[in-house]
Structure formats: C-alpha cells, structure tokens
Amino acid sequence: MKVEKEIEKAGFFQYYPVVPAVVVVKAGDELDALACAWYTALSFNPPLFAVAVAPKRYSYKLLRKGGEFTANFLTFDHVGIIATVGRTSGKKINKFSTYKIKTIPSTVIKTPVLRDAYAAYECKIVKQYKTGDHVLFVGEVKAVHYRGKSFDKKSKMPDLKSVTPALYLGADNYIAIKSFGQIRMGKEDITGKRTGRKEKGQKSE
Fold first, then answer.
1. CA distance 191 to 79
2. Model pTM?
3. Which of 17, 22, 93, 136 is deepest in the core (most CB within 10 A)?
4. Which residues of 166-184 are buried (b: 16+ CB within 10 A; e: fewer)?
5. Is the peptide bond before 17 cis (omega within 30 degrees of 0)?
C-alpha cells in the first residue's frame, strides 16, 4: 500500500463514496442550501445529527443566525439538485427560485424540507464545535421524514430495490449502484452460531 505524507498530493477522498446530504438553512426570510458530504450521526438518545460547514459558505451565517437546519437525502435521479446547490452561492442567487427547487413545510422547525427527498431530518442546533477549517453544527433531530416504500418496514434500512441513493465520489463525481451484493453479518454470524447469509432476493457481485 502506498503511503503519502503530503495529504493534498494524495487527495482526501479515500473515505468516499458517501450519500451526500442537502442541508437547507433558514434565518428570517433568507433561505439557502448546500451540499454536504461531511456529516455524522452522534447519538440515539437524544437523536443527534451533525454537519460540518466551512465559515466561508454563505449558509454558515444562516446556520448561526437561524439555529436550525434540515438534512435531505436524494436519489440519483435528483443528482442535479445536489450538484446545483453545491456549486452555486447563495450570496449571488436564490437557489430555490432560480433552479425551481421545491420544498414542503417542516412540522417542528421553520426550515423546510426538500419535496424530492426520500428522507430528511428536522434539526435544532444544540452545539457548535470548531474543527480545523470547518465548524461542526450538532442538531437534535426533532422529526424524521421518509418515504415508506424506500425503507424496509421491519429493519427500517433503505430498500435498495426501491430507492437508488445518489453517491458522491468526490471532485464533482456522482454514481448510482443498480446491482449490489448484500449480506447480513450480525453477532451470531461473527461468533459462529450461524453462517453469514445473503438477504433474500439479493445477489453477490
């Protein structure tokens, strides 16, 4: 395995692909959105979800001022929305009116949810941490929006036969996975009480 100590030379994309989130922010009458690949869940109880945003982003000041956001997840069919909000600035245009991005009202907070999202979180910001050249905004999830047909009713996992999430590879590249292998490897499988089994209807690569 090659080792590179000059991180910029090596690139910082090895942890991709990820499903990018479109983070929608609102402060007063100002509404903006940005594409975010740097996010993480932090806690079940309370449910915490965090996004990392650079202070140079126009959305940053709205996050600070509004104190809330929605995190929206889109299918590959709507990758244009992700790319558009990621590569344009709210300082110059209203992304929603310019690109006809549709929203629906949230149920708890004032910031809307994207109409085309297959899942979304309504979040109230409870903590902020400076992490190098980004700030981590920790939001407490107040409501979850999701399309029932996109998720397994029992496990609540995404049903990839019904939904195709957009995946970000870095450097403005996106992919969709149409064929995939899926296997369950729980505690029983690891300890040898049963062998890893394929999910019904799935095939291995």
1. 40
2. 0.87
3. 22
4. bbbeeeeebeeeeeeeeee
5. yes
| CATH number of the domain bearing residue 19 | 2.30.110.10
| pLDDT value at 130 more than 50 | yes
Which pair of tokens denotes residue 170?
């870095």
**Based on C-alpha coordinates, what's the Rg of the chain?**
19
173-195: pLDDT as tens digits: 999 987 667 777 788 878 876 65
CA atoms within 13 A on the CB side of 159: 15
Give the model's pLDDT for residue 11. Answer: 82
- Tell me the two tokens of residue 119: 């899942």
Beta strand ranges found along the chain (DSSP E): 21-27, 30-36, 39-43, 48-53, 68-73, 103-104, 113-114, 119-131, 134-146, 167-170, 173-175, 183-184, 197-198
Number of domains in the chain: 1
Residue 5 lies in a domain: no
